[in-house]
Amino acid sequence: MLQCLTLVTHNTASPNLVKLIPLVSIMLLMLSAFIMPLLKKKRHLFGLTGGALAILMVLSFVNVAYIYQNGGYYFDIGHFPAPFGISLRIGEIESLIALLFAIVDLMVTWYAYYSLEKEIKESRIAFFHTMNLLLLASLLGIVFTNDVFNGFVFLEVSTLAACGIIVVKDKKTNIKAGLKYLILSSLGSGLVLMGIAFIYSLSGHLSMDYIHEAMIANLDGKQNTILISVILFTVGLGIKGAMFPLHIWLPDAHASAPSPSSAILSALVIKAPVIFLIKVFYKVYGTQIIHETVILDLVLLFGVMGMIFGSLFARSQKELKRMIAYSSVAQMGYIFFAIGIGNTLGVVMAIYHIVAHALTKSSLFLAAGSFIEQTGFKHIEDFRGIGKEMPVTLGIFTVSGLSMIGIPVLPGFISKWNLAMASIQSDKLYLLIFLLISSLLNASYYFPIIINGYFGEENLDGKVFLSKSKPIKQLLPLIILTVLMVLVGFFSGSLIEFIERGVYTV
Amino acid sequence: MEKLGMILPLLVPIIGALFIVNKRLISDKNLTKVVAVTVIINFICVVYSLFFNDLTAVHILKVNAFLDIYFKVDQLTRVFSLLASSLWVLTAFYAFAYMDHEKRHRQFYTFFTLTLAVIMGVAYSGNLFTLYGYYELLTLCTLPLVIHPGTAEALQSGKKYIIYSFGGATLVVLGMMMLYAVTGDMSFMAHGIVDLSLIEGNRDLLKWSYLAMFLGFGVKAALVPFHSWLPNAMVAPTPVSALLHAVAVVKSGVFSLIRMTYFIFGTQTVMALDVTKYLMPFVVVTIVMGSLLALHQDHLKRRLAYSTISQLGYILLGILMLTPNGLLGAMLHLINHAVIKITLFFVVGAITHMTHFKYIHQIRGIGKQMPVTMICFTVAAISLVGIPPTNGFVSKWFLGLGALNIGNFLYIIILLLSAFFTAGYLLPISVTSFFVSSKSEPHERDAYQSNHETLHEVSDDSVREITHEMAKDTIHETAHETENKTLRNEMVAAEFSEDGEAESTDAKPIKLEPPKGMLYPIVLLTVVIVGLGIFPNPIINFLGGVIQDAF
Amino acid sequence: MQTLINNYMFVGAVIMFGIGFMILLLHNNLIKKIIGMNIMDTSIFLLFVSLGYIDGKEAPIIVGGVLHHNGYVNPIPTGLMLTGIVVAVSMTAFMLALTIKLYELYGTIELDEIQNIRGG
Amino acid sequence: MNLMLIILLVPFLGAFIGYYLGYKNEKFRNVFNILLTAVELLLIIMLYQTVKEGPIEYVMPNIMGTGLHLKVDIMRYAMLFISGLAWFLATMYSTQYLIKKKNRNRYYFFFMLTYATTLGIFMSENLLNMFTFFEGMSLTSYALVIHDEDRYSHDAGKSYLGMAIAGGMVMLFGILMEFDYTGTLDIGDMGAILPTLGPVKYVIALLIMFGFMIKASVFPLHTWLPKAYPAAPTPSSAILSGILLKTGLFGIIIILVEMMGSDPYLSMLIYALGLINIYLGGILAMLQRNIKRIIAYSSMSQTGFMLMGIGLVGILGESGGVALVGTILYMINHAFFKILLFFGAGIIYMILGELSINKISGFGRNKQKLKVFFLIGVLGVAGMPGLSGFISKTLVHEAIIEAYHHTHFMFFKVSEWLFLIGGGLTVAYMLKLFIAVFVEKNDAFHGQFAEQVHKRALLPMGVLAALIVLLGVMPNTIIAPLSLYAHEIGMEMPSHLSLFNATTIGYAVISFVVGGVLYAAVIRRKLYVMDEAEGRRIFVNPSLSWISIESDIFVPVMQIAYILFSFIFKIIDNGLLWIAQKSSEFFGGIAKIDAEAALNGTYRQIVTHTEHAIEDVRHKRQHQTEAILETVSEKREQAQIYTSISPEIEAIAKLKLKFGQIQRTASGITSAIFMFAFVVVFSMIFIYYFGHQ
């Protein structure tokens, strides 16, 4: 099918036009975002957002198809060539992530259409959409950019926008969580900025390729500076990407935000910095330098800790959304783990897991949001027997949970499998143990919800079949996300191949 | 068309389940009919696809060497799928009668048929990946059956079951990962795919892989110390317990072990890796522990559950012997134990169904009320002990020969010791039901007539002693003399004449034989037990194909 | 010691960063925290600008005719820092806005007091 | 269809038919069963026509994988014959004996099944078939042992079944090894291969023999016997002692003679065990007071004689004809005596419901028929010339002498005397039994119950008594075919046997004299003592307080092992769970620091610690506004009031509050910043420490 579409794009759109897509996407989103406050009616708001996102999705798809056919490309903004102007680099990974972001955001918006006003004030809906689109634009910017400073700016924008969608719900906890996120993020951005300063002092460039060339050229005697800068980047981006000990902002923010926001936060916001980190590692410093330092081991360590402790914390949570938030910490642990392994397969799997987790976690959050919305409860204990009242929603939750646990063919399993392969390839057999322990821990907190939800006479007592279930059109975005997730698992082979083509390592 | 014919057994139960789950299509009345039709059609399809279909291998979805859903038919598939599908038919009919008083039929039958599909999948799997997938699905499909009663206890057991199963599956994945890193291929081939030349340089990896997979699949096969989900899973309705023990869960674990040992690694490789010495202690402890702890159980189903642990140890032992005789013994015991254990469970289920008794001390004299059932139980018990001419003996025979072929007498001693214990925990049940009179507890009789289960606390020490303790010879001559005296005096007092003979002193007991739906499967299985014991040759020849593939 | 003196720019930036960080860490008052953060940001800006500064050259602002291109200091860091300052300002503004919101909700901007209010 | 197969199947099918008939009408069933056994006996007699021409065999392939292989030669035929006769008589006797018993139908069912399996043992030529029948016999006869369903019989049954199954398992071990080494299961084929193996053949033979030894109650595996015989209903006891015991001996003969080619070492072992059995059984029999128990121990003692005979067959090898004939004859005779004696005891029990000779002494004084039949049995066992027991004893004795002549080994000389004294023991306990029951005077029983001794019970006894006398007078009718058999299997018989001469009778006299002395000196003096309570002399049994192999050795050892292993395995059983639970609690504890308050000891420390810290902060703040001293004293007062109200509740509430604070602090912004600083520093140190790779 992909090939078919490629043919179509090849015939209809001229290549130059396709190369405009990244810029157009960002611009489109930003424009829509700024038009948003002008609109009043809910239908119009959603229409605009949905339209923009739909267009974005189509564009991203065309982009992916184009890249599938022709490979990646650079795009210089304003036609200033690289060292002076800002350039975007769109390869397989970037296009794929863009498509992913577009789809997830579209689905979340679709879901939000039915449920958002139940969670936030009506007057805030426009604000939500503004921030949402702005956020997406900045995230795409982070993903696309080939310029570290540009990346920094987009990071800051994304932080602000993300904070916006957290505090859109006017509760105390939200404000607090937002403030916490903001302060920590600023700290992180400070570090990133400092890191940029360091590498600028080393190389005199800001464009990734040029920094890399310059650094390779005069490496001697600068190892310490490189080390410090790389740590600054890792920790700075680690905060935004919820690397384990720096995850502290995440549970508050994700749990307190409205469900669509949570889904976006979990699926998109913490992913883009990781992509940026990978780019910094492999495009700025390059495989050679990175492998000379022990930074990957540090990332690995944090990743493993995240996998284990994230799950442990998740196990002891009483609120459903907090549990899922901690589960995100654990899943980010997988991604850092994958980066930390340090070989090509590891990086590929990091990207793959980003895709998989974005789809899974967004559907989990939306499903959890539906439960909370329909029942008014927040605690896990209160969701006993929910499977009788909302079977389809819990079904979606179950499939996503199974993916987290690692049932074959579902993407969670594929990532785990390939992570193990990567560990074995890099002769770190002991890592398998952590992988397995973490997947067991995953099972230990997802299964009780599912079992208590579907079975148990006492649990089901007094529940009425389908009494709280949503109409199918409201569930459709969740179903689409779940189906996509399953497909990602099924076609993991070709997907991984596609990612492998664009991976930065040697 | 051939392709479809081959995978039909995998699809039929799913289609059936789709019908069953649909309230509008199938009314409650017709539920059992649909289930019956499904399992029977499935059986026919199995026979067709195994013997009348030329196609023996089909890739459903092949993405790459790893992600490859692949089905294959070989002799081992035939053995397992025939066993499963035929026992499923019997269990279905048993369940129709048994489930009368249970709730939520639709859920039960849905998962009942779905589990059949999964088991067929396990049997037909052509590579480790597919097998693993079905293995995980098996856990998920059987879970609702295990926790069907819906009580807090059931949920707790279900949780335990699922955690153990996933722990095991996780270990399996670990093993698969290491294996795949070495071989890059996971399909089942006769004599294995791990070439001897691969061992150099990968010895540790392969070794760990084998160990991890063995222990992982061992969880389903109730290998000690990963067994404790099994006794807990007893809360399930009896047909489910029977299936869990006979074919569905534990046997799929064993089946996977055979696949893994002989069709992935291959005999030569396993020998070269020299891993069995690490695993044998587990297996030996499994055998002895299972049977010893079974002696401690008063709950009928728990006792059978521990018995299963022990018997599965036999099979694992046979697998690990790596000799043709050992494997033959293991395969025979796989079949025989399935038949025997399902019979035992059916009988216990019948007892519970008819009287609500669950403990051994409650079933005194029940043999007089349900003679046919208890005779079947006795035959099955004798067979499990391994007394000829029943099928249990045949498998024990080959296991013993296998142990001798590798010159290990310890295994035989373990086998025989465990058999002795088996007698110790099974025969007292028969004895209690037939030879211990129930007259001394009149209130117990009332109880089962009123179908109230209030008798947990009723216990007679003397019978408990018989069933629980080994012999403690406290009774001496004098004791006997005095005891008998009273009894005989009564006799003397009674009129002693020719006419006395015509009088019926055996008061006709109330017949409590279970309904036909339950009784017929039990009797049929008992006939099979004896039949396989007296004429084992056809089945041995049938298994010869597997042995040929393996060695 | 000599290295410290030679790299006085770095040292100064680090000291300033430290001051800002300590304020951020030790003060409970949110406004003070935000001030600390700003000090930190400023330290980085100063460092960055100092990187671009070359002794004896002019700022890259054209006043009355263009010098030789070696006559100016590197304009890029300065330009970047302008962006950075803008970002920092917007950040600060947002934080202050949130602080006001928090004050409305809790009646205080002392963090420990906020924390001690149950249900917070 | 082959006659052997018919013989095997008739009782098997008859069991089921009888069971069905019993449902309808008990009388029909009784008649049917008597007819069935009669027909069976006839069939067996018919078989003699072919057997005397030479051994006959029949193979039915595929049964049990190895095929059913039947064979009958003279020895096996002799066993078949006594079985047929015994069952015929016992069935007839049972119909009378069981009138007042429960579960008659079941009894006959198992009775017939035992019959079928016993015949199967005697006819099997395939070791696996033999094992099958042997196990079948053990199981079916178990139902006979525990027929009374009282506590005593259950106890005996447990012992019986436990040992039978253990024996079966050991035997199976032996058969497996045998099959592994020789590759055949046919006893005939084995005879060619097994003796050529190395020392392993002894292991194999002993393992297989183990099961048979249990049935034959060879020391020290006899422990079930004194419990099971008295527990079973009398016809069953008769069958157990008369026939089932012989299956064990038969098995030993088969192993020693046919499989092991009369191995001398093994023979010596059996010979020695025989001696032990004679004395152990004999002495214990002397001490007993229960008739059935006396007869039971007597069986054990007699087994010793037969074992000696079997041992001699092996020791003498080719010239062991006399021993072989003597042993077989002994087995036949012993079956007759024991059935007869048990029937007699059964009649007493039927009438009185009592077996202790203290209670029934003098019962038979006036019951002449019973007395005569019983006397014939007693004297037969004792080896009175003119009765058949004498013949067999003499033959075995001859064989001992011959063995001495062959080997000039002093042991045989000694054992010859031991043999005779052992005969004396037999005489002694038989005298005790007979005199106590039939000679002593007891007014209580004078003239009573005579009419209750029914013909149907007496008839079998009569038949047996007649046979004993007949065989005693005309021994050659049976010695001739047996000699032929011995010749056939390659054993030489002396051309003429002089059975009745001064020497042989002299030996019998020696035995009787010894027996008389023992009776007078030991039994009358030591065991028959005055009982103060009853005011008359009664027999005592000192062996009750003796060490018992079963209750003092087997059971404690097994119990200790059982308890020990149970303990270990229970630990294993729950070990993983325990570890899992503990570790999950541990990790749960770690996780809870982040998540929720839990008030237990571990946290209290942290709480108090932070309490101090918070207090300090407060002090500092108050320092700015107020004077320190005042506030402190105020606070103290407050605290005093508080604590006086309800100190405990307050303390808990305080702790909760503090903990909540810690929690909130932990998740607060400041701590987040702290965490950030920590990570930065940690990363720096990490990198600095590990440096470049």
UniProtKB/TrEMBL annotation, chain A:
Recorded topology in the membrane: Multi-pass membrane protein
Localization annotation: Cell membrane; Membrane
Membrane-spanning segments: 20-39, 46-68, 96-114, 126-145, 151-169, 181-206, 226-250, 262-282, 294-314, 334-355, 394-417, 429-455, 475-499
Keyword Metal-binding: no
Keywords: Cell membrane, Membrane, Transmembrane, Transmembrane helix
Keyword Transcription regulation in record: no
Entry-linked Pfam families: Proton_antipo_M
Span of domain NADH:quinone oxidoreductase/Mrp antiporter transmembrane: 146-441
Family of the protein in this entry: Belongs to the CPA3 antiporters (TC 2.A.63) subunit D family.
Protein name: NADH:quinone oxidoreductase/Mrp antiporter transmembrane domain-containing protein
Organism placement in taxonomy: Bacteria, Bacillati, Bacillota, Clostridia, Eubacteriales
From TrEMBL, chain B:
Localization per record: Cell membrane; Membrane
Bilayer disposition of the protein: Multi-pass membrane protein
Domain of life: Bacteria
Keywords (A to Z) from UniProt: Cell membrane, Membrane, Transmembrane, Transmembrane helix
Xref: InterPro entries: CPA3_Na-H_Antiporter_D, NADH_UbQ_OxRdtase, ND/Mrp_TM
Chief location bin: membrane
Residues in NADH:quinone oxidoreductase/Mrp antiporter transmembrane domain copies: 125-422
Spans through the membrane: 6-22, 34-52, 76-96, 108-126, 132-149, 161-182, 208-230, 242-266, 278-295, 304-324, 330-351, 372-389, 409-436, 518-535
PANTHER family, per database record: NA(+)_H(+) ANTIPORTER SUBUNIT D1 (PTHR42703:SF1), NADH DEHYDROGENASE (PTHR42703)
Family indicated by similarity: Belongs to the CPA3 antiporters (TC 2.A.63) subunit D family.
Protein name per UniProt: NADH:quinone oxidoreductase/Mrp antiporter transmembrane domain-containing protein
Species, as recorded: Fusibacter paucivorans
UniProtKB/TrEMBL annotation, chain C:
Predominant place of localization: membrane
InterPro entries: CPA3_antiporter_subunitC, NUOK/Mnh_C1-like
Residues that span the membrane, as ranges: 6-26, 38-56, 76-98
Keywords, in A-Z order: Cell membrane, Membrane, Transmembrane, Transmembrane helix
Membrane topology: Multi-pass membrane protein
Localization: Cell membrane
Family membership noted in the UniProt record: Belongs to the CPA3 antiporters (TC 2.A.63) subunit C family.
This protein's name: Cation:proton antiporter subunit C
Organism classification: Bacteria, Bacillati, Bacillota, Clostridia, Eubacteriales
UniProtKB/TrEMBL annotation, chain D:
Subcellular location: Cell membrane; Membrane
Keyword match Oxidoreductase: yes
Lipid bilayer topology: Multi-pass membrane protein
UniProt-listed InterPro entries: ComplexI-like_HydComp (IPR052175), NADH_UbQ_OxRdtase (IPR003918), ND/Mrp_TM (IPR001750)
Key words, A-Z: Cell membrane, Membrane, Oxidoreductase, Transmembrane, Transmembrane helix
Ranges annotated as spanning the membrane: 6-23, 30-51, 74-95, 107-124, 130-147, 159-179, 199-225, 237-257, 269-287, 328-352, 372-391, 417-438, 458-479, 499-522, 666-690
Span of domain NADH:quinone oxidoreductase/Mrp antiporter transmembrane: 124-414
Name of the molecule in the record: NADH:quinone oxidoreductase/Mrp antiporter transmembrane domain-containing protein
